User: Which sequence fits this backbone?
């Protein structure tokens, strides 16, 4: 029966929330990687997502290449953009104060947005779902196979990054850099290269996010700002720099938005999400999962 | 001494040439254009800009208006109210335009109406909401070319009644166009005895409307009306398919771009919406009064820009033609121009315009045809 009961409706809202939440979480993780390495917020993070989505559309719909090939090429392309951005705009700065670097990232985001508009035009681009558009039935609710792809991609990237930052030397060095760059340098860590790597990694995660969400949401050149904003909200709520927090907060925000749309009113969906953000900032400025002690030493 | 004289002479010559240029420039008729060429409504503004430029080139190539060339000064407002207000002030004060066509969307049009009224310059908007030209007493200088949203609502409700649909769920975008449409849908429901059982909205940049559609399903709606101009409107049919929600989907005339249907893909099949006849010109009877103008515009636009024509470009086509026709009659004095525009009788892409002191839109509900998506194409709905 189509008009399901209360539980299946709840489940449907939950699925929608999880899908939104995964998108926010992936963008938030991108923020965190660069934040962890440099202490700055990269406002071009949303543009990485857009580039990933648009490039994937071109490679799969226009050329058309098989999905895995297009996936690798797209990720490589966006990573190259990330590295180029770091080498051309962040690295040469003589006196890299946090504020100065953040303003540079804003400038880069505007530049990328403009270039994307020139190359891909202004209209929304759409692409086929990875594995069919027939929705799956789960206890009276429906879920798209693409949503499962999104959840899977999130789980996989979170796993990889947690492993990278906690169990590899390079990852640990990046964290050391974030805590105290001068001390890390004295200990023999090449901080400049690590920063480049962090841009490459966050570009990659942005690209992955863009690639897997485009079939569901369509992509256009101007979408980066909003994706970035929601992802930034998730990163802040979760505690800046905390990967686990970013994922949890992203999911919480997504689910709250979906529940607000379902049970309160779709008119106030975004307002509810912003309200949560404000409450968290008032009550726990370091974020739900952020370390209060650590937050005190941050440069903001 | 010799040098000074030489310099003076050169200066004088230059001054004369420059002065001549300035004089020649004032000989042109300056028309301001305000379109959302970039930004969230670029799908509207882009074809409007292209259309206006194409027409202006044609008119100038044919010798202009009574021997004077026209010069379009095109500003991009990005569908942003602040930018629109700044741009329109620039057009009026710096460029000294005699009339303005555009903007592309209802929100920006509403924002600049007070400025146009004060500056006493006629505006022919390319946005749809009835509120742009009503109440007409407060809209002395304002006209518009798209068919009225209230007429679109009437056509949709009439079609629903003919199909025995009574309970309807609304889902509208929280943009100027969506809000205005929602107001009209609610206001006219009682007249047609339609029950609005659900009233949901989504942000123009939103990505998933399943929660709203679940609520519409819960309310036992017999049909859904989706009112939006944004690309996000193509997500609604996809979400309905995902939810196996098989009730009919009606969309607004804002669906009038074949790219939206492409984006909706298979899920878009069978969507019903009212639109100007431009989109279905191939299936229009040969003796229809609009056939010639529609075919001409469509052929020229598609040959020149190599992309499918959209109703939005047609709104700019009509707006510029209305201004140019008035210019031919009375010249570029804004007050005379306004009076001439008010007496417009012109068959354009939107329909047969017949403006008057009581009606600054000039179109009725017959300007709309009910269309549907069939095989990925727009065709006239037959039933």
Assistant:
């Amino acid at each position: 029966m189509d008009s399901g009961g209360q539980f299946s409706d709840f489940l449907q809202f939950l699925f929608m929330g999880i899908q939104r939440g995964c998108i926010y979480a992936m963008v938030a993780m991108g923020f965190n990687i660069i934040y962890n390495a440099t202490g700055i917020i990269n406002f071009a993070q949303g543009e990485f997502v857009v580039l990933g989505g648009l490039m994937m559309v071109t490679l799969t719909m226009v050329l058309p290449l098989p999905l895995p090939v297009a996936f690798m090429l797209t990720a490589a392309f966006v990573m190259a953009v990330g590295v180029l951005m770091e080498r051309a705009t962040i690295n040469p700065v003589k006196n890299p104060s946090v504020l100065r670097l953040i303003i540079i990232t804003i400038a880069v985001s505007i530049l990328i947005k403009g270039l994307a508009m020139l190359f891909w035009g202004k209209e929304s681009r759409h692409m086929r779902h990875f594995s069919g558009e027939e929705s799956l039935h789960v206890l009276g609710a429906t879920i798209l196979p693409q949503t499962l792809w999104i959840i899977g991609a999130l789980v996989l990237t979170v796993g990889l990054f947690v492993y990278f930052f906690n169990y590899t030397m390079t990852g640990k060095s990046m964290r050391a850099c974030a805590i105290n760059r001068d001390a890390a340098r004295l200990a023999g860590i090449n901080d400049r290269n690590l920063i480049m790597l962090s841009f490459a990694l966050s570009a990659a995660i942005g690209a992955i996010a863009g690639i897997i969400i485009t079939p569901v949401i369509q992509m256009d050149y101007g979408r980066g700002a909003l994706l970035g904003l929601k992802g930034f909200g998730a990163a802040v709520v979760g505690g800046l720099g905390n990967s686990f927090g970013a994922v949890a907060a992203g999911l919480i925000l997504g689910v709250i938005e979906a529940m607000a749309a379902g049970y309160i009113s779709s008119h106030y969906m975004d307002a509810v999400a912003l309200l949560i953000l404000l409450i968290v900032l008032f009550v726990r400025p370091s974020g739900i999962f952020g370390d209060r002690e650590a937050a005190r030493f941050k440069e903001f | 001494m010799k040098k000074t004289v030489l310099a003076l002479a050169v200066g004088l010559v230059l001054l004369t040439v420059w002065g001549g240029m300035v004089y020649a420039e004032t000989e042109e008729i300056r028309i301001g254009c305000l379109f959302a060429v970039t930004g969230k409504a670029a799908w509207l503004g882009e074809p409007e800009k292209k259309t206006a430029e194409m027409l202006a080139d044609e008119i100038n190539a044919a010798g202009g208006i009574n021997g004077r060339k026209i010069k379009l000064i095109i500003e991009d407002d990005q569908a942003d109210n602040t930018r629109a207000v700044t741009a329109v002030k620039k057009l009026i004060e710096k460029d000294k335009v005699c009339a303005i066509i555009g903007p592309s969307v209802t929100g920006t049009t509403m924002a600049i109406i007070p400025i146009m009224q004060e500056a006493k310059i006629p505006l022919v908007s390319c946005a749809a909401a009835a509120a742009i030209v009503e109440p007409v007493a407060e809209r002395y200088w304002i006209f518009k070319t798209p068919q009225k949203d209230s007429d679109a609502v009437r056509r949709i409700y009439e079609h629903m009644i003919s199909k025995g649909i009574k309970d309807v769920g609304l889902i509208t975008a929280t943009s100027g166009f969506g809000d205005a449409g929602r107001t009209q849908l609610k206001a006219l429901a009682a007249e047609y005895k339609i029950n609005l059982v659900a009233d949901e909205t989504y942000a123009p940049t939103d990505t998933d409307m399943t929660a709203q559609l679940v609520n519409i399903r819960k309310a036992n709606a017999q049909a859904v009306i989706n009112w939006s101009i944004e690309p996000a409107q193509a997500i609604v049919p996809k979400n309905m398919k995902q939810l196996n929600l098989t009730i009919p989907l009606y969309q607004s005339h804002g669906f009038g771009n074949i790219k939206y249907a492409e984006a909706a893909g298979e899920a878009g099949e069978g969507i019903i919406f009212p639109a100007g006849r431009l989109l279905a010109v191939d299936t229009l009877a040969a003796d229809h009064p609009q056939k010639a103008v529609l075919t001409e515009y469509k052929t020229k636009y598609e040959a020149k820009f190599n992309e499918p024509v959209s109703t939005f470009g047609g709104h700019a086509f009509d707006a510029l033609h209305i201004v140019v026709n008035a210019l031919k009659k009375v010249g570029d004095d804004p007050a005379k121009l306004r009076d001439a525009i008010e007496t417009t009788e012109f068959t354009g892409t939107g329909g047969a315009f017949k403006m008057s002191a009581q009606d600054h839109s000039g179109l009725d509900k017959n300007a709309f045809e009910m269309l549907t998506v069939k095989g990925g194409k727009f065709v006239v709905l037959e039933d």
Chain B touches chain A at residues 38-40, 42-43, 46, 174, 200-203, 205, 207-208, 210-212, 214-215, 217-218, 220, 231-232, 234-235, 238, 241-246, 259, 262-263, 265-267 (CB under 8 Å). The radius of gyration of chain B is 23 Å.
